[in-house]
Amino acid sequence: MNKLVSIGFGNTVAADRIIAVISPNSAPAKKLKTEAKNANRLIDATHGRKTRAILVMDSNHLVLSAVHIETLCQRIQPKLDTAKFLAEHAADMEETEAAHD
Prior knowledge:
By secondary structure, this protein is of the alpha+beta class. Helices cover about 45% and strands about 25% of the residues. It has helices at about 25-40, 70-100; strands spanning about 5-10, 10-15, 20, 40-45, 55, 60-65. Strands 3-5-6-4 form a four-stranded mixed β-sheet, sandwiched between helices. A two-stranded antiparallel sheet has the order 1-2. The mean pLDDT is about 90. InterPro entries: RemA-like (IPR007169). This is Putative regulatory protein ENS29_03130.
């Protein structure tokens, strides 16, 4: 179940496909960004604003966001918790529904 997370300016990504959210200011992050750009794996969702976070996706793409890391993490965590809860309790919910039918 893909839960979408807003990363700013009307752009969204699937919460369960995010591996990491990193700061764009470190030398390794800048190197990752350059490598992703050269390999056509960079998605710029900043709308020309300053990059405040880099999302590393499970597809090996990097997504640039103008939203602060802390804000993104607050948006991502509830989505993942809900998806995890639903996955863990899907069988229980199906049994309950079947018992009521």
